[in-house]
Write a structure and sequence with these properties.
The chain has five helices and two strands, in the order H-E-E-H-H-H-H. The protein is mainly alpha-helical.
């Protein structure tokens, strides 16, 4: 019974933190879908992504994968990149990825 209660508590905690990291906002990689256009990021990157060590691998790899696959595509609403989108594109480049993949996002 005690094990069941602990497992239930852990599942509830995991559900409450979806979309966020311990340090704040988590990158929305659209569930790894093969998208025809991008959606805007709802918030700029948290310090977890912008710190000197580059952040946790499981959090930065989705950024790299997403912009490598989709960074040259437009936004689904036809608008240009928001300030949050530009900040995420800068994280992509700061991680050492090819700036050409997000050049139109950076302006």
């Amino acid at each position: 019974m005690k094990l069941f209660l602990i497992a239930t508590a852990l599942l509830l905690l995991a559900g409450c933190t979806q979309g966020a990291t311990a340090a704040g906002v988590k990158f929305d990689d659209e569930g790894l879908a093969d998208v025809t256009c991008m959606k805007h990021q709802p918030a700029p990157p948290s310090p977890n992504y912008t710190n000197e060590d580059g952040g946790p691998t499981d959090e930065v790899l989705p950024v790299l994968r997403y912009y490598t696959a989709h960074g040259k595509k437009g936004y689904c609403d036809g608008a240009g990149p928001s300030e949050a989108d530009k900040a995420w594109a800068a994280v992509y480049v700061d991680l050492g990825a090819d700036q050409a993949n997000v050049a139109k996002l950076l302006g």
